[in-house]
Amino acid sequence: MTNHPGENTRAVRLPAPSAPVGRSVRGPVHRSTTYAFGSSQEYADVLDGVQEGYSYARIDNPTTEAFAHAVAALEGAGLDREVRGQAFASGMAAVSTALLALTEAGAHVVAARSIYGNTYSLLDGLFRRFGVSTDFVDITDLDAVRAAIRPQTRIVFTETLSNPTMTVSDLPGLAAIAHEAGALLAVDSTFASPAVCRPLEHGADLVLHSATKYLGGHSDATGGVAVGRPELIAAIRSARIDLGPCLAADEAFLLHRGLETLPLRVARQCATAAEFAAAVQRHPAVARVDHPGLPGHQGHRLARELFDSGPEGARCGAVVTVTPHGDRGTGMAFADRLRVATIAASLGGTHTLVGHVGSTTHRQMSDEALRAAGIGPAAVRFSIGLEEPEDLVADALAALDALDGSASPM
Ligand SMILES: *Cc1c(COP(=O)(O)O)cnc(C)c1O
Q: 1-10, 38-47, 196-205, 280-289: which range is least confident on average?
C-alpha cells in the first residue's frame, strides 16, 4: 500500500482485530466468509487439504465446525472409534444431504412409515423423481422390515422416537437387518437427543438431528447435524459443499451454547414428562396417553434397554401425546383451553408447546389413516418444557375437566 492511501482504501483497510489476547471462555463467532493467506501456495494447499485452514465459509467455518465437533463428541461419548460430525442449516438440510450423499439412481430405501412429514415427502416425492425408491414400513415389525429389503437397499431409515406416538425403534434389531443386507442404518434422533440415547452405540451408522429442537433447546436457532464414522461424514460433507446448506456461524454459536445445558434440560424435561403422562392418564376424559415411560407403551421395554437413566429416573423423552375421548374438535378445544402450555409448532425448547396432531403435523391424514397409525383424532402432542411439573399437570387437568363437562366451561 502507498503511504497515503485514498479514502475508500483506508475505509476497507481499517485496523483489523488482533487475535484475542486472553483466552475467551466462550468461542468467538467467526462471521468472515473468507480467509486471508500469506501466499498463493498456502491458499492452494488449504484448498487441497494439504494444510489445515479455512478458505470460504460455505466450505468450513470455525464456529460451525466447533458445534459439529461438540455434537459428535456427545453422540460418540461411549465409543472407542472415531466419530465425526457435519452441521447444516436445518434438520431437513442434514437429512436431505445425507440421503443424497449415500444413494444413487436405482438405489432403494426402507423407511419407517411414521417418519417426520418432510422426510416422508422428500423420499416419496423428490427422491422418487431422481430414481431412488422407498418402501415405507411399520418399523416395529422387524419381519416387515426384513421383507422390504432388496439387493439395491442402501439405507434403512428410522427415528429413535417417532412423532407423535413416541414409538421406540429397536435399533440393534434394525442394525442387524441393515448390515446383513449391506445397507446402512440411519437414525433421526431428534426426539431423543444424545442425553437420552446415542444410536451409534446400538449399531446405527449415521445419526441425524434437527438441532432446532433439543440441541439448541431455546427455540431461537435453526440447524441440523449428521454424525457418523469419518468416511460417511466425508461423503456427506462433500455433498453439503456442493449443495450449499451450510450452518451460519451465529446459529452455530447459539446451538453450541445450548449443548452445555442439554443433559440438565433433557433430564428435567423427561422427568416432568413421565410425571405429567402418569397424572393425565388417570383423568376420565382421557382415552389414551403415549409416552414410553408408561408401562404398556410399545417402547417401554426398549426404552429401558436403549435409553439413559439418571438420579431423576428413566429418560424416555419429553414428548407426551394425550388423546381425549372425542373427535378432532375435542382435541382442538383441549389445546385451546391450556394456559401454561403454548400452541406452537416445534419441540424441545424450554417452553411447553402443544399442537393438535390431526390439524397440524398430520393434517393430510383422514381419521381412518390416523387410527391406522395409532393416532386418535383428538390427539394433542405436548413437548414438555422446563416449567414446574405441578403447573403443567394442573393446567392439563383443568382443560380436561372443562371437556369432561365436570367443570364450568370457559
Ligand atoms: C423438526 C424435525 C426435523 C426437521 O428439522 P428442521 O430443523 O425443521 O429442518 C426432522 N426430523 C424430526 C424428527 C424433527 O422433529
A: 1-10
- In this structure, the answer to whether residues 310 and 396 fall within a common structural domain is yes
Question: Is 56 a residue of the active site?
Answer: no
- 10 Å Cβ neighbour count for 24? 8
**pLDDT value of position 267:** 97
Distance, CA of 157 to CA of 115 (rounded, Å): 8
pLDDT tens track for 85-104: 999 999 999 999 999 999 99
116 catalytic per annotation: yes
The closest-lying atom of ligand 1 relative to the alpha carbon of residue 159 is 13
Q: Is 43 a catalytic residue?
A: no
**For residue 131, is it left (φ>0), alpha (ψ between -120 and 50) or beta?**
left
Residues 299 and 240 occupy one common structural domain = no
Domain boundary residue among 235, 259, 283? 259
Q: Whose CA is nearest to atom 7 of ligand 1?
A: 91
213 lines ligand 1 (CB under 6 A): yes
Choosing from 60, 84, 154, 188, the catalytic residue is 188
CATH code, domain with 280:
3.90.1150.10
Bond prior to 164 in cis (omega within 30° of 0): yes
Question: Residue 138: which residues within 8 A CB-CB, separation 6 or more?
Answer: 112, 113, 144
Are both 75 and 175 inside the same structural domain?
A: yes
Q: What is the mean pLDDT of residues 45-55?
A: 94
**What per-residue confidence (pLDDT) applies to 14?**
87
Sequence-distant (≥ 6) Cβ neighbours of residue 270 within 8 angstroms:
196, 293, 312, 313, 314, 315, 316, 317, 318
Q: Is 202 in the pocket of ligand 1 (CB under 6 A)?
A: no
**Nearest-atom index, ligand 1, CA of 190:** 13
For ligand 1, say whether the CB of 159 is within 6 Å of any of its atoms.
yes
Structural domain span for residue 381: 263-402
Q: Is 222 a pocket residue for ligand 1 (Cβ < 6 Å)?
A: yes
CA 152 / ligand 1 centre spacing (Å) = 27
> Do 314 and 182 share a structural domain?
no
Ligand 1 nearest atom to the CA of residue 222, by list position: 7
* pTM beyond 0.90, yes or no: yes
Mean pLDDT across 185-191: 98
Q: Are residues 287 and 253 in the same domain?
A: no
